[in-house]
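Record type: monomer structure entry
Structure origin: computed from sequence
Chain ID: A
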Amino acid sequence: MKIFETHAHLDHPQFASDRDAVIKSCSQQGIDFIINIGCDKQTTLDSIALAEKYEFVYASAGYHPHDAKEFDLDFLKKQAAHPKIIAIGEIGLDYYRYLSPKAIQQDVFRKQLQLAVELKKPVVVHNREANEDCLQILREFKPEKVVYHCFSGDVFYAREVLMEGWFISFTGNITYKNSNLAEVIRIIPFDRYFVETDCPYLAPHPLRGKRNDPRNLRYIIEKIAEIKGISPKLAAEQSYRNALKFFLNK
């Protein structure tokens, strides 16, 4: 079974004691690619360092909406030129926690989308309780490749995203008893989804509450397979092919 982890935070302090062991174990368990995600200046640099250390690890560069007040366009342009930076993200809007003012979030989102369009790089979107504004701003720039990471919208919003030609990525939250994502999984085309852990967060059932890591992707894959009525092998390999084409043009 080939697996592509499209969204991890292995630079997180929770991995300080065993980071190398976890990453090496991932490789041994069929995880062929990992994208470590930048959320601000330091995590972008840390993601690049991991990507330089491990051939099968790639990185993204960006400023999460929580960190929009710290945005540095010159820094982002410089890091985006690194050969192992394969996406701009995670970027977007978060109206749930409001750690940055709405106006600043929107301005920084626009500036990062403009850069992604100029560089022709995929965009990894963070969207929390900002559905309409997020969709409107994305439509202003019309980036060719967009993925809504950790999708949590309803089936109607999913259809809007899919109509634009964009992608949806599923995390461990699809395995929770209170998940409302089954219908989204049923309707999503086979060529428009990815899997991710968003580790160390969102450990899937039955590991909920524990530290998450890419080796737990199998639980997400198994849930998708169950809902779509296909084998886990097919669910994993379809996601793998989708991510390979989207992020690495292969």
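Annotation 1: The chain has one domain: 3-248.
Annotation 2: Residues 49 and 59 are 9 Å apart (CA to CA).
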